[in-house]
Design goal:
The protein has about 450 residues and is mostly helical. The chain has 22 helices and five strands. Strand 4 and strand 5 form a beta hairpin. The protein starts with 18 loop residues before the first helix and ends with a helix.
């Protein structure tokens, strides 16, 4: 007989209303849909299938004292929430409708089904290609994650920037290059116009997405900003928790400390690692998660330092003040500068330009320490090529001067790994000089 550790039920973010209150809010959002579902369930015969037939629409509007537009919208929501089931031309009450007044879980599952279908509730703007609409729908979860992690209003420009970044990532993942309608205009002359068109299109699609999410009760729209409702905040947390369950290691990384979670992600590829970070973050308040990640970054393990800032990239805007505050700490400054450069829109390949020569050298040693502790010897040798100095003698001179606490260990490991005897000898000499304090 064996024992098996069970995963404790995760706690929703602080401030989340009790399930009974969430269910009350979901019932309010779907009140018209429930009335129409009850009406349809009590109306035998054909004519209540989707789309609602004209004569049934009129009868429902009269019986329920609603406008035809309200009946049509409520009917669509009833179907999407599972309140009615269609069997041929006949609508029958769904199991959720039968349990609606007594089962809060059934109510919340019905609302989440509607939340998942927000893009069907609110029709996309006319004249936009289906592919662009599909990309926006695929990018919306990242927008929702930012809203959830921010725990308050987020400006529309910030959401638009994130949507544009996510769409660009989708293009890059598919190896697509955005082209104008003519597809023959030289890239140099077409780029500004294409960028403007893309920005305008993203703005239009973001407005549509926010309106659609507001229509299902997931968020509220203010003047230039959006805020998740308690229902929306809870639903996004549930989705992130589901990602965690699917992606977590057998040890259950969501339950671990930041250090153990990062170690559990160390050998994952970037995509699954980001999913793991999102799941871990979703189970904590933003402030406590950022503080824990920065505490790990201040430790002695260089690998965890780099991974902590990768996780902070997933946090995004809410982490900016804390990341900016550590610029005064020499061990974290290079990582913080790179994080801020990417956050402000710099290409990751160009972000290194924000580092001084000394900061770049310090980061080179720190990364080499991570490789020496956790990587393969061949990777440590290849790491030489990433040094800004260009030559090994120049690198060794500047490494000796930079004062990284792991300099000796890094140089000794590099000397042991390098296949060139002469170079290995020079590296060992440099390690000895640092160790003894010689020039």
């Amino acid at each position: 007989m064996t024992t098996r550790r069970t995963r404790p039920a995760p706690r929703p973010p602080e401030g989340t209303p009790p399930r009974a209150e969430l269910a009350r809010q979901a019932r309010a959002v779907l009140a018209d849909a429930v009335r129409i579902a009850h009406w349809a369930a009590g109306t035998p015969g054909p004519g209540t299938a989707a789309p609602l037939a004209a004569h049934a629409l009129e009868r429902a509007a009269t019986a329920l004292e609603l406008s035809p537009a309200q009946v049509r919208a409520g009917w669509d929501r009833a179907r999407l929430a599972g309140l009615v089931e269609l069997h041929g031309d006949t609508a029958r009450p769904g199991w959720r409708l039968r349990a609606w007044d007594r089962d809060d879980s059934a109510v919340l599952r019905g609302w989440v089904a509607l939340f998942d279908a927000w893009s069907l509730v609110h029709a996309a703007p006319e004249g936009i290609e289906a592919g662009a609409v599909a990309e926006a729908v695929e990018a919306v979860p990242q927008v929702l994650s930012l809203l959830q992690l921010s725990a308050g209003p987020v400006t529309v420009p910030a959401l638009l920037d994130l949507l544009g970044q996510r769409v660009a990532e989708l293009h890059e993942e598919r190896c697509e290059v955005p082209l104008g309608p003519g597809r023959t205009v030289p890239a140099a002359s077409a780029a500004p116009a294409a960028t403007a068109r893309s920005a305008d299109l993203n703005a239009l699609l973001l407005d549509w997405a926010l309106e659609g999410l507001a229509a299902v009760g997931a968020l509220t729209l203010g003047k230039g900003h959006a805020t998740l409702t308690p229902l929306g905040n809870w639903a996004v947390w549930v989705k992130l928790e589901q990602i965690c369950v699917a992606a977590q290691s057998p040890a259950g990384n969501i339950e671990q400390s930041a250090a153990d979670m990062l170690l559990g992600c160390a050998r994952l590829t970037p995509g699954p690692a980001r999913d793991e970070y999102r799941a871990w973050l979703a189970a904590r308040t933003v402030g406590s998660a950022v503080a824990e990640l920065l505490a790990v970054a201040r430790g002695e393990d260089a690998l965890l330092r780099g991974l902590a800032f990768e996780a902070l990239r997933v946090v995004g805007a809410p982490a900016e003040p804390e990341v900016r505050a550590v610029l005064a700490e020499p061990s974290l400054r290079p990582y913080a500068l790179l994080w801020l450069a990417e956050y402000e829109g710099n290409d990751p390949d160009d972000a290194q330009d924000v580092l001084s020569r000394e900061e770049a050298t310090w980061l080179w040693v720190d990364t080499a320490a991570a490789v020496a502790d956790h990587g393969e010897t061949g990777l440590l040798v290849r790491h030489l090529d990433s040094a800004v100095q260009g030559t090994v003698p120049a690198l060794l001179d500047e490494v000796r001067a930079v004062g990284h606490p792991r300099t000796v260990q890094v140089l000794v490991a590099l000397a042991a790994a390098h296949p060139d005897p002469a170079l290995a000898k020079a590296v060992r000499r440099a390690a000895f000089q640092v160790h003894t304090g010689g020039a």
